[in-house]
Amino acid sequence: MSEPAAATDDRLVVALVRGVHGLRGAVRVEILTDRPEDRYAPGTVLHREGDPAPLTITWSSPIADGPGWRLQFAEVRDRSAAEGLKNAYLEIAAGPDAALPRGSYFWHEVVGTTVTATDGTVLGTVRDVYRSGGAEVYIVDGGPYGEFDVPAVRAFVRVFAPRRGEIVVDVEALDLTPPKTRSAGDRPKAPRRKPGPRRKTRTPAVQDADTQPAEPGSDAPPPTPS
Which structural domain, as residue segments, surrounds residue 79? Predict the structure, then answer.
């Protein structure tokens, strides 16, 4: 099991601001903690990532018709000020309860770990981590299969021990194939005709932001192999 990394030596990221709600400075956040009732309780002090200025929660509520929570801060008094928080990670001071249970890892401990196949073939290293559909996904790169994703479930991950530098995955279960390479005798393909302009449409993101690459920091432990 792993968790997003500590953002600093003494902070954890617990939310990502996704939007603004109303005219009085409330914001809509993506939950990056498994304890939103505690982390977002009125009176709790958060900080914008890398900023010492406090953001004191005066009101909070889960969103009834979708994922996330809405937060109101004493220091953010209007919509204009709230707009400045969009896409910002919000940190909380890491207290004694920030220690991880046995078998859990911060994301920064996972990033950089060597990934091998069950036969010992090195497949690359974990370059990044993100969440999709409530589960973690590890982006692996630098090996014979190029860049590929590994959902953090037992069906694909056979050994998960980042602290000793070991993640073993099942290549067949992942259905990995080496990237195609062109031999010296291959003839280059004729260039495709550039298509005409198409009308652009805006489509909503799936589950608000679960497909966004994760940045270090949050204390939410998703279900991953231990």
Answer: 2-98
Tell whether 52 is covered by a domain. Answer: yes
Q: Is the Cβ–Cβ distance between 142 and 125 less than 8 Å?
A: yes
Q: Which helix (H) or strand (E) holds 115?
A: strand 114-117
* Cβ pair 2, 104 in contact under 8 A: yes
Would you say residue 140 lies in a domain?
A: no
Residue 98 and residue 9 in contact, taking contact as beta carbons nearer than 8 Å: no
Q: How far apart are CA 51 and CA 41, in angstroms?
A: 20
Tokens of 166: 């070991």
Residue-wise pLDDT tens digits, 5-33? 444 447 888 899 999 998 989 999 988 88
Q: Look up residue 69 and give its amino acid.
A: W
Positive or negative, the Cα torsion across 213, 217, 222, 225? positive
